[in-house]
Amino acid sequence: MSAAVTADDLHDLRTRVAGRVTGPDDAGYDAARAIWNAMVDRRPAVVVRAAGPGDVAPTVAFARRRGLDLAVRGGGHNVAGNGTVEGGVVLDLADLHRVDVDPGARTVRVEAGATLAHVDAATTPHGLAVPLGVVSGTGVAGLTLGGGVGWLTRAHGLTADAVVAVELVTVDGETVTADADHRPDLFWALRGGGGNFGVVTAFTFRAHPLGPEVLAGNLVYGVDRWRDAWTALRTWTSDLPDEMTTITTTLSPPPVLEAGDEPLLVVGLAWASPDRASGAALVDRLRRLAPPDVDDEVGDVDWRAWQSAFDPVFPQGVRAYWRNTSFDALDDDVVDVLVRRGGEQRWVGTAFDVHHMGGAFGRVPQAATPFPRRSAGFWLNIYGFWSDAADDDERVAFVRGMSDDMAPFASGGRYVNFEGRQPPGHRPVDLRAVYGEAAYSRLVDVKRRYDPENVLRVNTNVPPG
């Protein structure tokens, strides 16, 4: 047990919250402290599994009174490991996962511990969808607070762009709602500025008609066809309608996919319109430009099945490190890097995605949210997964090396949800550079108003000064 937290302290905390309070000497402690990224192994003094929003204020007050670091954990991954803390307090919101759909208003209220799977299960029966991510186990809260990129980004924008209202508890214990008319400064900051300003307990989203089936799937290419595929994508993506979003992945497939041992280029496609004929014609155009030589599996797919199709690529409990950058064009020099680096990654787990941006995402004014680089044509996410700590240096070096190779072509955007935990000795992400001077200054102002002591600092932190 931490020297700062005694048995009497834990007893006192248990009288103040309805949820489960777990200390280092309690049964289930290792399970309570475990997070998705096994590279981050921390031993908090106490984990509070909140039973409801009423547990937030007393937990925050407990951490403040004792001068302990406070980590807030939602329902999902948190690649950087900010959902836990050494010797401090973890506030775990995973049991707050209720989703309420208003089909008439096309709004969806989502509690902060919900995952994509929870939301899709509630919205799909109504023929509705919220723009979310690409893996069903992703937590909605972290995804939204950082921005939210996924299969509907070009059609409907970021997850953060769909937010209508945010309910949260401030560090002073006040329950507030932020929307366009109430606390608009806070509402702006929460849609891309991370968990710096309060503990979010629920979001209300605007939903869009979709499904339950969509036109989606993959065109898959072997190594010899990669350059042709990238060249075709350069042409094909130049004039796509908003309804078509593509995410192109290079990976050595995990055995569960039964796709062999050689690295593959997978062009993932999702068409967010009931006009199947127009979507199919677009896919046919890409097929003609670059006929897939490994697999062609595009057709009508259940939306929930598509949202979980990439789950096997992101297993629980792996060691993980990510980096990302935006760029504007698939020119020959960029393609050279993508083909060369893709051919070098011959181990299962490490991969990279190229998200085609633009569409509805690109039409949101830059100043409307803190999210950086709305003008980006593409976004590259390089991610590594492995199980053996002995591979840490090699795998991290690959991710960093590819990131360095892409630096000459980068357009300046960095997405905080795609940033991994920095290894020891490396400088943290420069958020002033990420957000730009004007947006960063606005974030600091909001932070100063709502968290002047930087209580919420175990995150991608915007300090209050």
CATH topology of the largest domain: Vanillyl-alcohol Oxidase, Chain A, domain 3
Using only C-alpha atoms, the radius of gyration works out to 22 Å
Overall shape: it is globular
Q: What structural class should be given to the helix and strand makeup? A: alpha+beta
Q: Uncertain segments of ≥5 residues (pLDDT<50)?
A: none
Rounded mean pLDDT score: 93
The total domain count is 3
Q: Helicity level, as a percent range?
A: 25-40%
Oligomer: single chain
Distance between the termini: 33 Å
Largest sheet, strands/sense/barrel: 7 strands, antiparallel
User: How many H/I helices?
Assistant: 15
> How would you write the strand order of the largest sheet?
15-12-14-13-17-18-16
CATH structural class of the largest domain: Alpha Beta
Task: Note the beta-strand portion.
Answer: 15-25%
CATH architecture name of the largest domain? 3-Layer(aba) Sandwich
Cofactor: FAD
Protein name: Dehydrogenase
Family: Belongs to the oxygen-dependent FAD-linked oxidoreductase family.
Keywords: FAD, Flavoprotein, Oxidoreductase
Brief sketch in words of this structure:
Helix content is 29%, strand content 23%. With 465 residues, the chain is an alpha+beta fold.
